[in-house]
Amino acid sequence: MGRSSVSLLVGLLLLRFNWCLAVHGGGVGEVGGVFPVVVSTWPFREAVRAAWDVVSAGDGGGSAVDAVVAGCSACEVLRCDGTVGPGGSPDENGETTLDALIMNGATMEIGAVAAMRYVKDGIKAAKLVMEHSLHTLLVGEKATDFAISMGLPGPINLSSPESLEKWANWRQNHCQPNFWKNVAPADSCGPYHPINLAQALDSAKHEVEWSQGGVCQERFQSDSLLEPIHSHLKFIDRHNHD
Amino acid sequence: TISMAVIDKMGHVAVGTSTNGATFKIPGRVGDGPIPGSSSYGDDEVGACGASGDGDIMMRFLPCYQVVESMRQGMEPRDAAMDAISRIARKFPNFVGAVFAVNKKGVHAGACHGWTFQYSVRNSSMHDVEVITVYP
């Protein structure tokens, strides 16, 4: 068996090993269906309960759309995991903005807001886009203006003492880690200016040579110099994600 | 991020996502939260999907649209979820993300890559919310 087929086999095994099963531990991943049903990412029990209260109320129950709004709103108020609602995930300027989307699976209508500032009710704003415009997605301060004009409270500051403290600590740590690539300076706060690929390779080569004296830091994925690995060693985790 | 799917007593499907995105993002950056077909998608005729993870990568693959369309073609939720995640992992082995899939019969499943994932469920056969863990 040639060297390349061996490495292919190893790669497949690694991929398979790194993959997680859809079946959850100790039980059956697929459970028989019983209406109504609410499913949500993460263990956001309060949000699922809020949606369940709406969808299971009375004989006919509330609508699926209203239940989704209730569930997502609950997480916006509770600031689930710090990843939903105001007060979390500051950007490089320390500001918190909200993204939200709602979809009606009966009519295929969709409403969404992105990078919305100064309005704390993301999912409600998305529903207003769905119900009062022919559009699908409104962004930034224009989404803010739309939401406030449709009656949502605002403008209000979406930051919190926790998010501002988190941001201040990050600034003191030379704005690391961050989402930039192929820019200089690489290891401190901006302003940044673009560096071309040759310069990027050169500075990264020095970094790899320098680091091989100590702990080996793999900064470049061998087969894709166009997308340096450090752009994949991003710090996406349970408390920092979409 | 919360992504939620609801099937009501009439059998109607709705999905929603709400998030404040990635921490220390470059100002103006939007993840896949508000992108239909990436963070969530639903269709009364088929079922629904919700997702969470690295939105910069996931919005390039629209995993939830893939899940719903796979179920439309007859795939079970578990296979549809695994297939959507594997398509991303093949191109981005270091990617972090997860989806849940639920079909119009209420059968649900989850799949993930790069982290342990949990999703929550409540239906009429349960007394309270149940949390399901999907291990890497």
Characterise this structure.
With 242 residues, chain A is an alpha+beta fold. Chain A has seven helices and seven strands; from the N terminus they run H-E-E-H-H-E-E-H-E-H-H-E-E-H. In chain A, helix 2 runs antiparallel to helix 3 and helix 3 packs antiparallel against helix 4. The longest helix of chain A is centred in the N-terminal third of the chain and has 16 residues. Helices cover 21% and strands 36% of the residues of chain B. In chain B, the strands form three sheets. In chain B, strands 3-4-5-6 form a four-stranded antiparallel β-sheet, with helices on one face. Chain B is globular, with a radius of gyration of 14 Å. Classes of the chains: A alpha+beta (242), B alpha+beta (136). Chains A and B meet through helix 1, strand 1, strand 2, helix 2 and helix 3 of A and strand 1, strand 2, strand 3, strand 4 and helix 1 of B. Strand 2 of chain A pairs antiparallel with strand 7 of chain B.
What is the element layout, followed by pairings?
The complex is a heterodimer of chains A (242) and B (136).
Chain A: H1 3-18, E1 19-20, E2 37-41, H2 45-55, H3 64-78, E3 98-104, E4 109-116, H4 122-132, E5 137-139, H5 140-149, H6 161-172, E6 183-184, E7 193-194, H7 197-212
Parallel strand pairs in A: 4-5
Antiparallel strand pairs in A: 3-4, 6-7
Chain B: E1 2-7, E2 13-19, E3 40-43, E4 47-53, H1 55-58, H2 63-72, H3 77-91, E5 97-103, E6 108-113, E7 117-123, E8 130-134
Antiparallel strand pairs in B: 1-2, 3-4, 4-5, 5-6, 7-8
Average pLDDT across residues of chain A? 81
Task: Report how far the terminal alpha carbons of chain B are from each other.
Answer: 20 Å
Q: Helix coverage percent of residues of chain B?
A: 10-25%
Strand content of chain A: 5-15%
Number of strands of chain B: 8
Total helical elements of chain B: 3
The unreliable regions of chain A are 10-19, 21-29, 210-232
Largest sheet of chain B: 4 strands, antiparallel
Strand order of the largest sheet of chain B: 3-4-5-6
Mean pLDDT of chain B: 97
* Number of beta-strand segments of chain A: 7
Distance between the termini of chain A: 43 Å
Shape descriptor of chain B: globular
Number of helices of chain A: 7
- Sheet having the most strands of chain A: 3 strands, mixed
List the chains of the largest interface with their residue counts.
Answer: A-B, 107 and 100 residues
Low-confidence stretches of chain B: none
Q: C-alpha Rg of chain A, in Å?
A: 23 Å
Physical arrangement of strands within the biggest beta sheet of chain A: 3-4-5
Q: Roughly how many Å is the radius of gyration of chain B?
A: 14 Å
